[in-house]
Amino acid sequence: MPDFTPTTDLSDAWPQAQVAAPVFRDFGGRVRFQGEAVTLRVSDNNPLVRQTLQTPGEGRVLVVDGGGSLNCALLGGNLGIFGVENGWAGVIVHGCVRDTAELRGLDLGIRALAAHPRRSGKREEGERDVPLTFAGVTVRPGDRVVADEDGWLVLGADLVPEPKL
Ligand SMILES: O=C([O-])CC(=O)C(=O)O
């Protein structure tokens, strides 16, 4: 990926960068990804996740706060394909995903807490474009999210562009 600065270097250059607690697993076919955050808060229901991944991603990262729920999966193979087809760089789920063998084959960054076989509820509820706080970070819409082999972090929109490293 062109112009990719590792999270380690970003963290060194910007001590104020928010680093997510290292509780996320990598499920995607793309280990390194970055982009502006689009935010969703849902609770064991994923229609908003589906709807959002069906809109143009334009290289952004969908950040889903599922409240850390270990009850069901908020994203699976079909939603992952929507993400690829619509140009999302990645999806970060504070919750679970499923179809992990399929997700691994997608050109999409995917982080989540765990795998879970059960599908989520189908109620159209949740909030979009709200600040999210979980795993020690606050993600606001438009913040830059950067993920790689070492974890992921959040750079507030005010920190863009990058400093000279
Ligand atoms: O539809 C769902 O709830 C999640 C899923 O399994 C998929 O994306 O394929």
UniProtKB/TrEMBL annotation:
Cofactors that this protein relies on: a divalent metal cation; Mg(2+)
GO molecular function: 4-hydroxy-4-methyl-2-oxoglutarate aldolase activity; metal ion binding; oxaloacetate decarboxylase activity; ribonuclease inhibitor activity
EC number: 4.1.1.112, 4.1.3.17
Residue numbers binding substrate: G76, G77, N78, L79, R98
Keyword annotations from UniProtKB, A to Z: Lyase, Magnesium, Metal-binding
InterPro entries, sorted: RraA (IPR010203), RraA/RraA-like (IPR005493), RraA/RraA-like_sf (IPR036704)
Catalytic activity: 4-hydroxy-4-methyl-2-oxoglutarate = 2 pyruvate; oxaloacetate + H(+) = pyruvate + CO2
Residues the entry annotates as binding Mg(2+): D99
Listed GO biological process terms: regulation of RNA metabolic process
Quaternary organization: Homotrimer.
Entry function: Catalyzes the aldol cleavage of 4-hydroxy-4-methyl-2-oxoglutarate (HMG) into 2 molecules of pyruvate. Also contains a secondary oxaloacetate (OAA) decarboxylase activity due to the common pyruvate enolate transition state formed following C-C bond cleavage in the retro-aldol and decarboxylation reactions.
Record-linked PANTHER family: 4-HYDROXY-4-METHYL-2-OXOGLUTARATE ALDOLASE 3-RELATED
Family indicated by similarity: Belongs to the class II aldolase/RraA-like family.
NCBIfam families linked: NOT-MenG, PRK09372.1
Protein name: 4-hydroxy-4-methyl-2-oxoglutarate aldolase
Organism: Deinococcus wulumuqiensis
